[in-house]
């Protein structure tokens, strides 16, 4: 097979159509064109063509992934899923993600740290819910546990649970008012569990906030 023509296409990014033996063969970016030093008159075999097409696919996938990462940090799973939606094979998507990991453009450890700090800053959240959210984004269990251990303490969780419970009682005072004390406590306990707090912290928090409420009424 002989390259008989190379034409520049009208695209935002440089793209070239490579014609082989008088017929259109494949498109390549300027990056791949230079990488393989393609010129009119060059002879190509099937193996060489396959290498060029594979390299072009890798290059395009990388460009899409880098653009995707430019908006905010992403996990490895998110990048692979995005590339799959763009039509790339799973093997290629994983290869691109691994390449970007080596360049430290994808870092699941750092993503998990940023994610946890951001969630805790926005709203009091229990570790169980944080763990579930991180797993949903494809973060490995060992990374999740390490990050939670680094960032979240039992004291932090207790304070967060009490803050959330106090706000809940204040905002839901009218709906709680006509309930029996035991039922109010159970509903608050269940709410804290849904927010990801452990049963021990939820139990202690319910006891604490209701005790404070009783002392406040007595005063």
Write up this protein.
The protein is mainly α and 219 residues long. It folds into four domains: 1-44, no CATH class; 48-106, Arc Repressor Mutant, subunit A (Orthogonal Bundle), CATH 1.10.10; 108-151; 154-218. 67% of the residues lie in helices and 9% in strands. It contains eleven helices and three strands; from the N terminus they run βββααααααααααα. It has helices at 30-35, 46-69, 76-85, 90-102, 108-122, 127-136, 141-151, 154-171, 173-177, 181-194, 199-218, and strands spanning 3-8, 15-20, 23-29. A three-stranded antiparallel β-sheet has the order 1-2-3. Strand 1 and strand 2 form a beta hairpin. It is rod-shaped. It starts with a strand and ends with a helix. The mean pLDDT is 88.
Mean pLDDT: 88
Q: Give the total of domains.
A: 4
Topology as H/E string? Answer: EEEHHHHHHHHHHH
Compute the number of strand runs: 3
Shape: rod-shaped
Q: How does the helix and strand content classify structurally? A: mainly alpha
What is the distance, rounded to the nearest whole angstrom, between the alpha carbons of the first and last residues?
A: 93 Å
DSSP summary: helix tally: 11
- Poorly predicted parts: none
Largest pleated sheet? 3 strands, antiparallel
Attribute tags:
219 residues; mainly alpha; Arc Repressor Mutant, subunit A; 3 strands; rod-shaped
């Amino acid at each position: 097979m002989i390259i008989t023509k190379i034409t520049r296409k009208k695209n935002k990014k440089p793209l070239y159509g490579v014609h082989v033996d008088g017929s259109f063969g494949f498109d390549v970016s300027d990056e791949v064109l230079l990488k393989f030093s393609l010129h009119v008159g060059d002879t190509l075999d099937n193996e060489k063509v396959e290498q060029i097409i594979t390299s072009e696919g890798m290059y395009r996938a990388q460009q899409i992934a880098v653009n995707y990462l430019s908006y905010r940090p992403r996990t490895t799973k998110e990048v692979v899923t995005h590339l799959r939606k763009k039509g790339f094979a799973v093997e290629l998507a994983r290869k691109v993600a691994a390449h970007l990991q080596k360049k430290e453009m994808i870092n699941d450890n750092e993503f998990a740290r940023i994610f946890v700090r951001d969630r805790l800053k926005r709203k009091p959240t229990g570790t169980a819910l944080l763990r579930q959210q991180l797993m949903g984004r494809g973060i490995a269990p060992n990374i999740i546990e390490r990050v939670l251990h680094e960032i979240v303490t039992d004291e932090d969780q207790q304070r967060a649970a009490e803050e959330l419970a106090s706000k809940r009682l204040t905002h839901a005072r009218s709906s709680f008012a006509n309930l029996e004390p035991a039922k109010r406590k159970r509903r608050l306990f269940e709410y804290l569990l849904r927010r990801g707090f452990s049963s021990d912290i939820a139990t202690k928090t319910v006891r604490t906030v209701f005790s404070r409420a009783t002392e406040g009424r007595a005063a």
